[in-house]
Amino acid sequence: MSVTETSGTSTSLPQSRLARSAVVVAAAVVTALVVDLVLWAVGLVAGGSFEHTDAGEVMSAAPGGVVLMSVVPLTVGLAVAALLTLWWNGFARIAQVVGALLPLATIQGTISADFDTPSTVALTLMHVVIAVVVVVSLEMLRARD
User: Fold this and answer.
1) Of 3, 16, 17, 133, which one has the fewest beta carbons inside 10 Å?
2) Is 9 contained in some domain?
């Protein structure tokens, strides 16, 4: 009987940590965007307008605002965290705390704006989605190859 040694790495994942980090960041951003757009659609169906008054002018927060505020901060934050995690894996824990607290702390701005109730609920849930996606994706980055 012969024994054959096999590699423990998956052939479906990129082999380098940098490539793996890029895949995790991209997947996290796409996931958050899709979930946030679903929440926006549910908010619209529930009667939300996603409009608020700013300096006497009615402003719309969606769909462009949803896309912009889901993609840009998440992409920048996760990319920086991914690069720093390549240098020091322990940075992922710090980034998880900061990355979860920031979107949760900014919920106050949504609640204090004069959005209607369906819009406020949907936008608040979008903040929670971002926090969860940050924690989960950084946990994936933290895992050693």
Assistant:
1) 3
2) no
Each residue's pLDDT tens digit, 85-142: 988 989 999 999 999 999 999 999 999 999 999 999 999 999 999 999 999 999 999 8
Q: Are 92 and 138 in contact (CB under 8 A)?
A: yes
| 73-82 per-residue burial string, b: 16 or more CB within 10 A, e: under 16 | bbbebbeebb
The whole domain housing 30 covers 15-143
Residue 55 lies in a domain: yes
How many domains does the chain divide into? 1
| Helix (H) or strand (E) run with residue 60 in it | strand 57-60
Q: Which two tokens stand for residue 21?
A: 């980090």
Q: Which residues pair with 52 in a beta bridge?
A: 59
Whether residue 5 is contained in a domain is answered as no
- Write down the pTM of the prediction: 0.84
